[in-house]
Design a protein that fits this description.
This protein has 25 helices and ten strands. By secondary structure, it is an alpha+beta fold.
Length: 751
Amino acid sequence: MRTAANIIVRAPWLFIVLFLGVTLGFATQLPGLQIDPEVKNQLPEDMPARVNLRTIEEHFGGSEMLLVVVSAPDVLDATVLQRLDRIGSDLSDLPFVDRVLTPFTLTRIDSDEGGMMTVEPAIDATHLPSTPEERGALAEALASNPLVYGNVVARDFSAISAIAMLGSDATDTETMAAVQQVIDDNPGPGEVVIGGAPDVRTHLSEDIRGDFRRFLPVGLLVVLGFLYACFRQLRGVLLPFFVVVMSVIVAMGLIPMMGWKVQMLTVTLPVILLAIANDYGIHLMAKFQEENVEGKVRDSRFLARVVLEDLGPPVIAAGITTMAGLLCLTTHIVVPARQLGILAAAGVGFALLCSLGFIPAVLAVLPVPKPLASLSGPEGPSGLERLLQSVAGWVVRNPWPIIIGICAFALLAATGMLRLSVDTNPINYYDANAPVARTSALINQHFGGSTELSILWEGDIQEPEVLARIDALERELRASEDVGFTSSIAGVVRMMNAAVSGGEDALPDSREAIAQLFLLYSMGGEPDDFERMVDFEYEHALLTARINTLSTEKTSAVVARAQELVADDSNVLVGGFGVVFADLVAAVVEGQLTSLGLSLVLVFLLVTLTFRSIGAGLYAVVPLVLAMPVLFGLMGHLGIELNVVTAMLSSIMVGVGVDYTLHFLWRYRAERHAGLAPDDAVLRTLITSGRGIVFNALSVIVGFAVLLISNFLPVQFFGFLVVVSISACLIGALMLLPAMVLVFRPAFLEP
């Protein structure tokens, strides 16, 4: 590092202008940032769940629905029905709506006195009930109609809905604005809410923007306050702070440059950098203050050179290990996790370069400040320094009890891992009292569910054998308590057959009889009545099941059961957002295990290379390995799910936590080589490098604590868990690792 340090201090303004110019260049890209709240885009384009979803949309149009729900004490009141009819009519006029399902557009299949099939609207808009007797008769008719009961009419008649089937060209902003305008244009009795995927995505987009607006100013103020508390000198505050700001600008500017968009996971990027990017500057400034003591006349260039020469190697090693841990996120199948790993690693890399180039350059041109009294004054050490002395003394006196106690606590905490669960439903990003969660609960309770499972059949749909398989699967799914509503052409054929056969609830046993039923229906019904169930050529059919639970575990069970039942039929594919959520579960678990294993291996190799010792690699990862059961066990005990956000924890913890062990080992080895005994070397290391380690860890803890003000529960939990995990790594570096080197005396640290 000596050559690099000499170059930087001899031409400091060159490096200052260079780093500022690069930052300004990335800042010009920031206006191009765009938000993408779509859940399915979290999976790669070639994942089966997305491929199947596209195939279904090719045959049956857009697979998304938007519900306008009217709640009232009695939704069969004529004024409530009139309002819903007006809303449904106006929705059907919107250009991005393919079809609207209401009790006025859905049919009632029956037979007349002569045994002929009749097809009429489930509710006749021209003859609404006006007496209690008429409302009772209508309620009885609706309850016997499986096309509407539990679909667009609540089973307790406390809510009624219009379901808009959206085209593939619908945009969320346009859709929500137009639908809200329709509601405003049709006032009347009852409370109206909007639900469905566009509503969820709109809330996600607004809340992502809200998080960005709050995270940056709050985070920057927190970082400024923390740095001042640590260094109590203006340069100690502003230099690491500038590095943070510059790294955030570079990382965020990369997003539009790479053609990516901001997703819910990406809102953590500025906070990750606010917490991590100042770590290297903190170590340098702590060393600068340590070297700047009374009685030694040193100019600014000399101090900048000494700081960079002494701490350059461990800072570089710490930065590379952190980047390696973050880049392990690229092993995730979840797309935003991969992108976040690259962006965060790029930001940390730029922060590392700034710390090694920009900070020494600025230190070289500034006058030498007055030394801190707490480090060199006659009153001796104070505050943190005295605390570190106490910790060091306790570790020196009790190495074995510390090792045994920490290992026992880790094993006890690990029992919570048995209760760890996975969740990927975006509704669960919110508190149960949030509007989007309440609307989803209303849909789950009264209208079958807000998550759809779609099963596509290919073949001659009018063949009795094909219809029988569709019918059998529908009955099997409907029997599940987690499925609130199902629809298929097989069920409609059953209804038509019952109407013409005197009530026989069975499928016809010949293709000709089935074709005859469709012909009879066409005499009274509309050709597009079944467009969401079968295509015009009767070559493709769609079975739809709505899942009425927010539990990803239960959703995955329904999906797995459907896939099991059609596994032997090559002409059937299972899709829909239920499959997307189920596939995300596997992706989250696989990504967590892969990134964790890879990050530990990379950290082991990098530390081994840094110290040229396999033992060093082992000692560096032991505190991290013990912190893992504490982290995941705590999640299980507290009921915090593993999701696309919390699945990043392990890579971040490994990448950041290894910094503390690395700095301890580096300084301890230097003190041993300087001739200090092991006990004295531990004491000296914790008093000197321990100060930078504590500042480093606290900066991460304080920075990630900003996530607690997020609009999203997983992000809040993520912030809390990072605080816990980094605290565990800090304890490992200040207590467990010193105790281990005192007990086992590893050869790579000895003179």
